[in-house]
Amino acid sequence: MIHKSIEESVLDLEQEGQLVRIKEEVDPYLEMAALHLRVFAQHGPALLFEKVKGSKYRAASNLFGNLDRSKFLFRETIAKTEEIIRLKNDPMKALKAPFKHIRTGLAAWNALPKQYSNLPNDFERIRISDLPQIHHWPMDGGAFITLPQVYSEDPEKPGVMNANLGMYRIQLSGNKYIKDEEIGLHYQIHRGIGVHQQKAARKGQPLKVSIFVGGPPAHTLAAVMPLPEGLSELTFAGLLSGRRFRYSYEDGYCISHDADFVITGDIYPDETKPEGPFGDHLGYYSLTHPFPVMKVKQVYARKNAIWPFTVVGRPPQEDTAFGDLIHELTGEAMPKEVPGVKEVHAVDVAGVHPLLFAIGYERYTPYQKVKRPAEILTVANRILGTGQLSLAKYLFIAAQEQQELSTHKEADFLTYILSRIDLKRDIHFQTNTTIDTLDYSGTGLNTGSKVVIAACGDPVRTLDKEVPAVLQQLQGFGPAHMVLPGVVVLQAPQFQSYGQVSAEMRELEARLNGQLPEGTPMIVLADDAAFTAKTLSNFLWVTFTRSNPSHDIHGINAFYEHKHWGCDHLIIDARVKPHHAPALIPDPEVEVMVDRFFAPGGSLAHLNK
Length: 609
Description:
Layout: H1 6-15, E1 19-26, H2 31-41, E2 46-52, E3 58-61, H3 67-73, H4 78-89, H5 92-96, H6 102-110, E4 114-115, E5 123-125, E6 144-145, E7 148-153, E8 163-166, E9 170-171, E10 182-185, H7 192-202, E11 207-213, H8 217-222, H9 233-241, E12 246-250, E13 253-256, E14 261-275, E15 278-279, E16 285-286, E17 289-302, E18 306-309, H10 318-330, H11 333-337, E19 341-346, E20 355-360, H12 375-383, E21 394-399, H13 410-418, E22 427-434, E23 447-455, H14 469-472, E24 480-484, E25 487-491, H15 498-512, E26 522-526, H16 529-534, H17 536-545, H18 549-552, E27 553-556, E28 559-561, E29 564-566, E30 569-573, H19 588-593
Parallel strand pairs: 1-2, 3-18, 4-12, 20-21, 21-23, 25-26, 26-30
Antiparallel strand pairs: 2-3, 5-17, 6-9, 7-8, 7-11, 9-10, 10-17, 11-14, 12-13, 14-17, 15-16, 19-20, 22-23, 24-25, 27-30, 28-29
Helix pairs in contact: 4-6
């Protein structure tokens, strides 16, 4: 079935038993988000909220709650879309077999955007305050749109084919925004809208922006797709929805005819207001910072519109399914974009951007017996210079020497690297550089460091499978827990300052130098070692979201030689620092209040069985 609207998607999922209607009135302040989070955690259905307190509009969430559900929504168009993306990556395929790809070409032609002269008949003008005001986490600065399609055009090349469609969070209320007249637009570095705003600012004019919410699910996915050069988001939206993107202009603003809601307005040069806090996808709040303020021009809603939303928090969440679907659609894109790469995996449970695993090819000196990282270091630099991957902090990269090696088998991959790495040679830092806007482990907004940890060749050590005795007997530290072969999490005193850390590292150095077996190459310092070591997910989340490589990586018998740093044993300080953002904690009173939906007679009672 090809969905022309979010309503059709909802009915389709309901017919398949993959959606539940919430018939009780639900408060958009924390309750809707709490319900969504609990249902997602139970691998439950999509939700349609029929009575949203304070708004006449229905709302839907968890539509993309897992990969199977997402693929079901696009079952009629996903194969042709995959083929077109492959052709964009390798156009020689079409030249070698032109008749095979005739139908694909027709699909691409039919996906070209289609312009109309007037607004849709069923659009009505409303206000920002008429929208569902969903407040997701207790410390959030207000209500936010979490599934927006933010549309802007290149001021130097206007028109839909040079437009950018991105997903940047939108703050609807709170802070210093004038009610119904202003909203906040938070976009991070390396985003297409930033290029457009810079060009508009150079011309001394505001950037016209349209925000689309709802419509066919393909339009939502298009806003987050990393597409090959030359394939626009609007074309992709048409491909995956099986229907041309329909639009018109009103006062110079692009209006999507398929969206359930449209907000238009202007962003003026150098005009910002405080935006945030907001509970974000790393599992922490992003704090209040100045971001562009959008002066609202018009707000439109389709009659009987549905407001789609999601809730982000410590991964995995619904946005994980977005990532899985993107991987399905673009699987071969990264090896095509970066020569020498076999695969790259942005580790979702570590918040995506903080941690990358990669496999590359090592072909520089195949005639030499002794192997060391060479080409994979070149590959690592290419990865860290590519799009959103450039925001990563940690990149673990291995040479492709075993066919079964996979970055998606995360425990095995780390074990593979740690058994092979030369800690004196194979750790490479980049300091005072960019990291993810949402990552507060660095030295400032968007600012931190990176480290490449590379491995090549045969194992150089056998990893310990039990905690070495010397780590169990450290005064002021402990207890210690083995989380993976060769990786120990050590309970440490509360972080006070980096001056205190220097003293602690000197003490550890004195106690452990020459005493720690070679089979334990990595020690992680944590506030709660038992929690950190309990699951691989906890370990990856704590270790790589709470550390800044340049400041928080230490070593036993560490040294500098010609600007290169190395050690005998790696120590990562993953304690919470005073400058870190607070972790997301649900409101316990709200958690009790939403129990009523799962009680006998409640809309979700069947999930308690």
